[in-house]
Amino acid sequence: MAAYIATDHVASFFHLLAGVEPGRSSSDFDIVRLARQGLPKRVLTTLAQKISLTLQELAGIMHMSERTLQRYEDDALVKTEYAEKAVELARLYTRGEEVFGSLDKFKLWMKTPSHAFKGETPVSLLDTSIGFDLVLRELGRMEHGIFA
Q1: Residues in contact with 81: Cβ distance below 8 Å, sequence separation at least 6, in sequence order
Q2: I want to staple 141 with a disulfide (CB 3.0 to 4.6 A). Which of 15, 32, 115, 146 is the partner?
Q3: What is the domain partition of the chain in residue ranges?
């Protein structure tokens, strides 16, 4: 399982982060640049809508209060650590769409309790980097036909 985004799926990644323009080469380094510079709040709220997360769920994943997120102006850049979490979310959902063949199918799976996650939903694990890793590993197993 690749930890990066396959070149042909970079466009899907940038589609999830609407309002962010990829560099000419659209590489993993463009993604690093995004995480470092921060993202406008409107990009985060659009991402949440596209991946069917409430602002409360998004704020929880980012370890901030919903109220703090709401206080940002739409064009204000959110702190780097929050932008990095948003980039990770977009990468995960791009990978999930790749494995499931459909973003809608992946979103449904993310909100369905799973035996592989001790009865928790995959989305509930995203408040930790270990949870992100668990979900990515499960996607890799699914892609290769290995089910827990």
Answers
A1: 62
A2: 146
A3: 7-143
